[in-house]
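Supplementary Methods, section 5.1.

A reviewer requested that the exact input to the structure prediction be made available. We therefore reproduce it here, unchanged from the version used in the analyses.
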Amino acid sequence: MTESIQLSNGKSAYFASDSHLGAPNQVKSRVRERKLVNWLDEIKNDAEVIFLLGDLFDFWFEYKTVVPKGFVRILGKLAEITDSGIPIHFFVGNHDLWMKDYFQKELNIPVYHKPQVFEINGKQFFIGHGDGLGLKDKGYKRMKKVFTNPFCQWLFRWLHPDLGVRLAQHLSLKNKLISGEEDAKFLGEENEWLVQYAKQKLKAEHYDYFIFGHRHLPLNIQLKQNSQYINLGDWIKYYTYGQFDGEQFQLNAFGKSFHYSDK
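The structure derived from this sequence is encoded token-by-token as follows.
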């Protein structure tokens, strides 16, 4: 069922993705975490709703009674915002796909493991992290089957958290297939698998906006006269985010000027 959101006068919907807190180390991540917290502080004054499209952490795994240590500032800020009445929606990425119910129970943030459709001011938004969609990304699709296999997750839970988290963080940083640290270069519309995926979806149903992360590259591509593909970029290099004011969607960069070419 599509959730419908009507923005109040002067309010906006905000979107961000891919901060990968934890990579490449705690020191550099702490800098990015503070920027992300500052951004949330800035937008909370006119945010009607906030969408976080995954890979907030470079690794996240929920044991029954344990979650990864660190980054309490961002968790505290998210709790503050939801407590104030501003809803936040979280879509898991390929690095934090092991989320269960911690965000829902502790932060009142619903967690989605698949793309969802939202209607905002009468516009249809198809929203997801973007991993594993379309015909390509085949290597990750094979890996994801292992990651999401209940038996494999059960085996991983038997590792002591100190060992399990350290092992997973090491793999996340070292293995490009897992971490998604591919070169963030525009491949051309015909080679951008998320663009092709969006075009296929449009053959069956209309969407005004396709909003994804995962590619770490800010993109705004016109699919049809009234349909756009947006990739939000990241909070590692670009510090970009999306804003929909009820009429138009635009990409901005926090704390610096940002220019991109519409493809």
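Confidence is low (pLDDT under 50) at residues 176-181. These observations are discussed further in the main text.
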